[in-house]
Amino acid sequence: MTGPLFDIAVAVARIAVFFAFCFGLVVVMTWVERKGAAYIQDRRGPNRADIFGIRAWGLFHPLADALKFLFKEDFIPDNAHRLFYQMAPMFSLAPAILGIAVIPFGPDVTVMGRRIALQIADLNVGILYLFAVSGMTVYGVVLAGWASGSKYPLLGGLRSSAQMLSYEVSMGLSLIGIFMVFESVRMSQIVTGQGGLLFGVLPKWGVFVQPLGFILFLVAQYAEANRTPFDLPEGESELVAGYHTEYASFKFSMFMMAEYLHMVVGAAVVATLFFGGWQFPYLGDAGFLLPGGSTVAVPPALVLLLRIGAFVSKVLFFAWLYVWIRWTIPRLRYDQVMRLGWKVMLPLSLLNIFATGLILLLLNK
Amino acid sequence: MTIGVIKVARPRKMSFPESLYLVEIVKGLGVTMGHMLSNIVRQEGIKTIEYPEVRREMPPRFRGRHRLMKREDGTPRCVACYCCATACPAKCITIVAGESPDPGVEKYPVRFDIDMLRCVFCGMCVEACPCDAIRMDTGWFTPPDDTREKLIFTIDTLLEK
């Protein structure tokens, strides 16, 4: 194949593979959420939808949901602003999809003598792009809340904008420590930087060099994704269903997809920044390098598979953690959320930057 | 001491590690994971009754949907006396009487309809019946259906049970 054609083919293939992975995971996550919630609460969960009598533990329920949403009436309330009402679900879903572009899902591979990064776009601004994009999600929520022309969605939208603004700050600041340690905002370089060993024993993962940063980032991310315990915009006991109260059919489904895609992207970002992305513990390019000094040779193809597998399993774990946390912790009150955001998270993230800077300064002297 | 003042036990003050919530959240995660794993391993331990396939065992005196009793020769025991229809507070029983071919019996119900959508399951009809022709001991509710007409039970449906 010639040069440009090859590049295009590679780009399309990367997008197709990772996009399919993320959306497949979104579909599975809706099932995991319902089934996991059921088992945590001593219920059985979805188990009725079947194809030719095969029920497969309710795995076909997402399919049934999608069909149902597709065939429902596309309803627009009288009071709604017709244009913005229809734009809001798109504004909600688009940033979530954009987010998957900068996540490296595997190491560089060599195909036909060319090095190919397993990442849709290796931007030099990396994580900053992710912040910019995820900051846009609030537009979808606010727009939906305002354009619905109804009180509950408006309150939900307002809550969500206040909450997202508060947590955006500490989310950004909690990652400064990571940038300082790995000296880059490029996702691929952060992942490669996590390949080494810390004190010769621990993998040099973000979570081990930045434990406080990890906790802060995780909490901020749950608040950003509007997940329990921070799902005030959807507080059903107060606001019916929050910003998407007035939405039905596929528009509602787009909000749901955006929420789950946020979870998947969030899980991938946590895995990439704090758990070494595609790094498999103690696995070098040629094989395992155990702390004791012993080595186990592994063929390159298996190394690649192990690394991609490591990334996928980390993403699956953190996606599950969203569900697990949701059915464990009750929702915070609104003033508690604000207090946590401004009075606890922000000072702690500033402290984290200061402490990281101090330690790096002392180590380099 | 002031009269009428009751000292209420205040919740215990949280210790410092508790007020950080981190350890407590992990403990909570442990609890939920324990529930989930035990439910996955022991599916029969889940309390949910899977309704259409499995039915809850009703107590013996449960007043369920009605049935009409038959004589030994298979004819309905009902003599169309209208006692149940009169006693019914919901006015859901419709009876049309006819002359019975049996010389020993005066009347029999040509029509005996119970509108299950109006029935309040009070059991007055059973109390009122002089010849024990109607009972509510089927031990089950009125099953759901898709039209109103199907839920007006006729004499044939009521005799079946």
Task: Characterize the overall form of chain B.
Answer: elongated
CATH topology description of the largest domain in chain B: Alpha-Beta Plaits
Strand order of the largest sheet of chain A: 1-2
Q: How many distinct domains of chain A?
A: 1
What is the subunit organization of this protein? heterodimer
Count up the helices of chain A: 13
Total domains of chain B: 2
In angstroms, what separates the terminal alpha carbons of chain B? 71 Å
Structural class of chain B: alpha+beta
Strand content of chain A: under 5%
* Mean of all residue-level pLDDT scores of chain B: 86
Number of DSSP helices of chain B?
Answer: 5
Q: How much helical structure, as a percent, in the residues of chain A?
A: 55-70%
Query: Uncertain spans of chain A, ≥5 residues at pLDDT below 50?
Result: none
The first-to-last residue Cα distance of chain A is: 52 Å
Rg of chain B: 28 Å
Give the helix level of chain B as a range of percent: 25-40%
Sequence of secondary-structure elements of chain B:
HHEHEEHEEH
